[in-house]
Amino acid sequence: MVIGPGVNTSKFQHWVPDLTVIRKESETPMFLADPSVLAVEVASPRTRVFDRGRKRDVCERFGIRSYWIIDVGQDKPGLTVLELRRGRYAEVVRVVGDEGFSAVRPFPVTIVPAELL
User: Fold this and answer.
1) I need a surface site. Which of 25, 47, 57, 90 has the fewest CB within 10 A?
2) What are phi and psi of 12, to 5 degrees?
3) 82, 67 Cβ separation under 8 angstroms
4) Rounded to the nearest 5°, which phi and psi values hold at 115?
5) Tens of pLDDT, residues 10-47
6) Quick one: average pLDDT of 1-7?
7) Global pTM value
8) Mean pLDDT of all residues in the chain?
9) Which CATH fold topology does 6-116 show?
10) 70 - beta bridge partners?
11) How does strand 66-71 pair with strand 38-43?
12) Is the pLDDT confidence value at 102 over 60?
C-alpha cells in the first residue's frame, strides 16, 4: 500500500488524506507545509461523523480550497463538495448514485458516485 503525502496542518497536527492534490512546487519528501488544492476523504459509517466534523474543520482552518467527501456507507454512494469562500467552507453540491458532478476546481473532472464503487 502506498500512502500519499502527509499534511502538517499545524505545528502539532499531522494528517494523511485518502487522496490529495498538491501543487508541484509544494512537493516535499514527507510532509506538506502548504495547503493542498484538494483533499478527498472516503467516509464509511465508522468515519462519517469525523470526516464531516473534525477533519472538515482542520482542512478549513489550514486553507485547503476544496474538500470532497465520498460517502460509501449509504444506500447509494454520495459526494459532497465543499469549497473555501471567505475562509469558510460552503457546500457547493451533494450528488448521490447516478447523479454527476462536473468540477471546475481544482481541475475539470466529472464524478458520478455510483461509478466509484
Assistant:
1) 25
2) -115, 0
3) yes
4) -85, -5
5) 666 666 777 887 766 655 555 566 778 898 988 877 76
6) 52
7) 0.80
8) 81
9) tt1808, chain A (3.90.1570)
10) 42, 79
11) parallel
12) yes
Q: Parse the chain into domains and list their residue ranges.
A: 6-116
9-to-51, 55, 71, 74, 93 alpha-carbon distances in Å? 15, 10, 23, 29, 25
In which order are the strands placed within the sheet that holds 19-21? 19-21, 38-43, 66-71, 78-85, 88-96
- What are the residues whose beta carbons fall under 8 Å from the beta carbon of 62, sequence distance 6 or more? 7, 9, 10, 35
The burial of 9, by beta-carbon neighbours within 10 Å (0-12 exposed, 13-18 middle, 19 or more buried), is given as buried
**Cell numbers found for residue 99:** 447523479
